[in-house]
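ARCHIVE CARD
CATEGORY: sequence design from structure
SOURCE FIELD: tokenized fold
FIELD CONTENT:
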């Protein structure tokens, strides 16, 4: 007995062999239990290790304004059976402005954005991003501190050397999406509550000039 279905773009084939007696019964019970699992939210993620998150988000800027953005993230993840070897990698991450700022171009880089602000000196919009994936950090030059800065220059987001204006900026973008979204609209309060959690490392709470990646013991 087999079951062929799709999880998004991924094809999954479950196969339960025929047999006799109690073995057949147990296999059928297992098969039915698997179908129940597949009917639950997140079953495709569990089977494929691929996840997609989409949400609307309020962002509190340092100048007192609150703006609205739209986020889309696709990432791969894996873990040990004991749950103590979690690893993830962003495949796609976008940030789109809404409201009065909707004409600004889409930010589209496979990283984890931490901070969004408008530089008062240059009037440029700035996004500072990071990663918790050592392969990505290595491929992108092994920066220390482990951040990448993007500035909106004209109609294009341009990666630049991280500037002094970014250091000390508190994280104001939601980073707790991997375990699931608490709501489809993330408020400023939800972002701040997540950043305050004790399990969040200091390098993700703000842009630190002394921040160091934990990759390779560096």
């Amino acid at each position: 007995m087999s079951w062929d279905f799709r999880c998004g773009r991924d094809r999954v084939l479950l196969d339960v062999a025929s047999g006799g007696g109690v073995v057949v019964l147990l296999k059928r019970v297992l098969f039915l239990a698997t179908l129940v699992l597949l009917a639950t939210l997140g079953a495709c993620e569990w089977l494929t290790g691929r996840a997609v998150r989409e949400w609307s988000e309020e962002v509190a800027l340092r100048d007192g304004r609150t703006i609205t953005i739209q986020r889309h993230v696709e990432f791969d993840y894996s873990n040990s059976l004991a749950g103590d070897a979690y690893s993830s990698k962003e495949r796609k991450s976008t940030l789109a402005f809404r409201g009065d700022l909707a004409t600004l171009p889409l930010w589209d880089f496979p990283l984890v954005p931490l901070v969004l602000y408008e530089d008062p000196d240059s009037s440029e919009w700035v996004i500072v991003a990071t990663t918790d994936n050592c392969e990505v950090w290595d491929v992108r030059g092994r920066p220390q501190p482990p951040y990448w800065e993007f500035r909106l220059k004209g109609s294009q987001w341009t990666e630049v050397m991280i500037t002094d204006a970014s250091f000390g900026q508190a994280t104001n973008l939601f980073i707790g999406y991997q375990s699931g979204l608490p709501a489809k609209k993330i408020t400023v309060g939800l972002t701040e509550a997540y950043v305050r959690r004790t399990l969040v490392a200091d390098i993700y709470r703000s842009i630190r000039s002394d921040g160091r990646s934990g990759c390779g013991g560096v």
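CARD ANNOTATION: The chain has two domains: 2-47, 50-217. The first helix runs from residue 21 to 39.
SHELF: design records, drawer C
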